[in-house]
Every structure is written in C-alpha cells, then in structure tokens.
C-alpha cells in the first residue's frame, strides 16, 4: 500500500484549536475585513508595534474573501449599475452571503462599517470607541461601490477616511484598524504618548524636536532644553493652540466651546 505523507498523533497540553495558526480567540479584539484582496492583509498592520501586537494576540485579524461568495462558476461578485453609467457595482446577494458568514464569527455588538467616501468622517473619537468594543467588521468596496439595498438591510454605517477617492477600501481599512488597534492597552509600549498626541485634547499636537541641538542653523527652542517642566508644558500648549487655530478652525471652535469659551468672541475666526 502506498503511503501519502506521515500521519502522527501526539498528545498536547494545549487545546487543538489554539494550535491552528488562524485560530480565533474569543475575547480578543477582532478586525474582520471583507475584501476581494485578502492578500493585502495584514499589510502595514503586520509591521512594527501593530505587527508585534498581532503576533502576541493582543488583537486578531479575520479576513473574508468576497470571491468565495460569488455567483456561478466564475464566482462573479459585481454587475453593471442599474440605470446605466460607468463601472460595476458589488452585488447585494453576494455581500449578504459574505456578511452572514462574517457576522456568525464575531461578537454581535461589533459595529459593521462600509468604508466609503460618502460616509461620515473617521475620527480619533471613533477609533477610541471602536477600541473599547469587541472589534469591528469592515467592508472594503471596489469599483463603483456596494448595492444600496444591502447597506440599508443591515443598517451598515458608512465611514470615510477623507474627501478623496481611493481605488478600493483596503488602504482605508488598514488606516481605520491601525488607528484603533494602537489604542488597545499594551499595543503601544508607551501609553502616555497616546494621551499627548493630536486630537487627544481636541488640539493638534505641538511641534517635536530631537538631537542635534542645532541643525542647519536652526536651534531647538530654548525652553525645551531648560528642564523647566511647567514652562515646557505652557510652551507646548501655546504651540498646540496656535497650530490648531491656524490650520483647523473647525477643531479650534469645538475646543473653545469645550472650554466654556465663546468661539464668536475669538476675533480671528
Ligand atoms: C472607487 S471607490 C468608489 C467611489 C464611489 N463610486 C463614490 O463616488 O462614492 C471604491 C471603493 O474604495 C473605497 N474608498 C474610496 N475612497 C474612500 C474614502 N475616502 N474613504 C473610505 N473608503 C474609500 C470604498 O470602499 C469604495 O467603495
């Protein structure tokens, strides 16, 4: 009789499912991604701190290949837009099958997001809220996007990365997941850096400097080398306010309101 490979059974103190490289852990923050390009993941999420955290199972990634749920022999996922026009649209029935599978393997309270230039802008506050939940299911669109009926049927939230159009949702998904995962405790070595950075207090972050003390005739602001912590904090706060006021009047208004100040009394707005 021919033998096809080696079959060995050995006792293991660890449960079998934990030995599988793609085994999913209950209670671990989960990024679930529905995509036509699962090979794009983890992508940059597999590098540096998010990559280490992924290996250490501080979070986990579950990619779902939309093609597996396609129609017919060719596994078609898209068709021409009703009413005519350029491009193709992702089919509702195909996405429904992918979603049924996806939602069966994530906590039901995990939000369901379709990345779309039409969506509400993604913010640091949204990243924080997502990081405090069990995870998220994100749908990466392609072509002209997704049939509206499946968005309405599932009550899917549309989230945008900004006022520009990407070719597909994969880069947007990585950005959303990166911004969220780094807020999960222990993912960043230094948690205080999260508290100090842009948006954490409603302001953009102050400028940063490092060695050498003078570069190309430009010196580091003296106060930062003074060792006087109160003065350094005052300088950083003043710079953060200046930059926010100059670059983001929308954030500046909201910041003034959060401080109980009246934005209409700010002459330069
Ligand atoms: C070429 S775009 C589709 C654009 C769509 N026809 C429109 O005009 O709104 C293909 C996919 O890329 C993703 N995408 C493009 N721009 C995005 C953005 N600013 N934010 C989030 N996702 C985006 C979405 O998933 C979208 O379905």
From TrEMBL:
Alphabetized SUPFAM superfamilies for the sequence: alpha/beta knot (SSF75217)
Enzyme Commission number(s) from the entry: 2.1.1.228
Coiled-coil region(s): none
tRNA methyltransferase TRMD/TRM10-type domain span: 32-253
Catalysed reaction, written as an equation: guanosine(37) in tRNA + S-adenosyl-L-methionine = N(1)-methylguanosine(37) in tRNA + S-adenosyl-L-homocysteine + H(+)
Single GO cellular component term: cytosol
GO BP term, example: tRNA N1-guanine methylation
Subcellular location: Cytoplasm
Major localization class: cytoplasm
Pfam family membership, one: tRNA_m1G_MT
Keywords carried by this UniProt record: Cytoplasm, Methyltransferase, S-adenosyl-L-methionine, Transferase, tRNA processing
Protein family: Belongs to the RNA methyltransferase TrmD family.
Purpose: Specifically methylates guanosine-37 in various tRNAs.
Protein name, entry field: tRNA (guanine-N(1)-)-methyltransferase
Organism encoding this protein: Roseivivax lentus
Classification lineage: Bacteria, Pseudomonadati, Pseudomonadota, Alphaproteobacteria, Rhodobacterales
């Amino acid at each position: 009789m021919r033998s096809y490979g080696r079959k060995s059974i050995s006792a293991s103190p660890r449960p079998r499912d934990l030995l599988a490289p793609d085994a999913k852990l209950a209670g671990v923050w989960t990024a679930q991604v529905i995509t036509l390009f699962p090979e794009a993941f983890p992508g940059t999420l597999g590098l540096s701190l998010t990559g280490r955290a992924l290996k250490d199972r501080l979070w986990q990634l579950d990619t779902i290949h939309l093609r597996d749920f396609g129609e017919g022999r060719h596994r078609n996922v898209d068709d021409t837009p009703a009413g005519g026009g350029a491009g193709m649209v992702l089919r509702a029935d195909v996405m429904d099958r992918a979603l049924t599978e996806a939602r069966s393997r994530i906590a039901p309270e995990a939000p369901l997001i379709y990345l779309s230039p039409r969506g509400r802008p993604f913010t640091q506050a949204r990243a924080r809220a997502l990081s405090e939940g069990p995870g998220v299911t994100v749908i990466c669109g392609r072509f002209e996007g997704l049939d509206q009926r499946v968005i309405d049927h599932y009550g899917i939230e549309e989230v945008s990365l900004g006022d520009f159009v990407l070719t597909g949702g994969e880069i947007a998904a990585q950005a959303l997941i990166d911004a969220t995962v780094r807020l999960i405790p222990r993912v960043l070595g230094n948690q205080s850096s999260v508290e100090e950075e842009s948006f954490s207090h409603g302001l953009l972050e102050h400028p940063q400097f490092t060695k050498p003390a003078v570069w190309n005739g430009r010196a580091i602001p003296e106060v930062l080398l003074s060792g006087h912590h109160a003065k350094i904090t005052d300088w950083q706060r003043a710079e953060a306010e200046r930059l926010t006021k100059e670059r983001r009047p929308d954030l500046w208004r909201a910041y003034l309101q959060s401080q109980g100040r009246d934005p209409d009394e700010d002459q330069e707005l």
